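Following the same procedure, backbone shapes were mapped to integers, yielding the entry below.
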Amino acid sequence: MNVVGIVGTNTMFSYNRLLLMYMQQHFGDEMDLEIMETLNVSLFDQEHDQTDGTLIRDFTEAITAADGVIIAAPDFNLALPAQLKSLLEWLSFKVHPLDRKPVWITSISTTPQGLLQVQTELRDILGAPGINAALMANNDFLLTNPEHAFDQQGNLIDLAAIAQLETSFAHFTRFAKINNALNVPREVTFNPGTFTVTTPGNSGDLPMTVTLSEHRIEKVEINTTQAIADSQDIVFTEIPRKIVDGQTLNVDAISGATETSNGVVEGVAEAVKMAGANPEYLRMRRRK
């Protein structure tokens, strides 16, 4: 099992880093754990895209190839560290490697309040539409009083904590295996043809034609010639392009036009049904 472990702090000494290093050794026969640092992650700024930079590209490629992800994070003033939050924002901006990826939350903090805040905030962020990670229920690993749980060599020595970690890890390996099996792309076969549906526009419903070959969405065309208010709407060119290029219904909505974007997707989904296929399989395909 190949797993990426993300150190969710920029401090040079971190019990959360020690935890990942301990897990790397303790579960070495069952998991190949690659530990990745957030030390050099820049603050998220969509005006200065970093998704093509080496650091975010390395995270994207490693997570995409992994069977699962472990995020180990403390709290800073009852909130997530800024670098970790920025990393998650970069990974939901133009790239989406965490989409349906099994994620295990682990957190070591000095107070129960800090643990609860990290757990709650991470679950909210990881469940957001732009990330859409797969999270286990009630199997996060949370630990307080770390100064008594580790020895000077960085080994976890608290027997109760080790037992909890092993139980949580067993749940995670099973969860990841089942989740990834469900996410294996399915072959989708259409009855070829051109299907006419509609999509909502500012001027009312607009006619849309979807052309399908046996295994591909070939073309999505929206007729805005009679709708002056919609003729320049980027949604009606960008969303069809994303659908055809990615061969998926799992596409990002255009900022500020979520409802219209979703309307186009649902129109194509209706055409897929008319062609005798299940659009849910196309929603499960990863975004590009």
Observations:
- The mean pLDDT is 91.
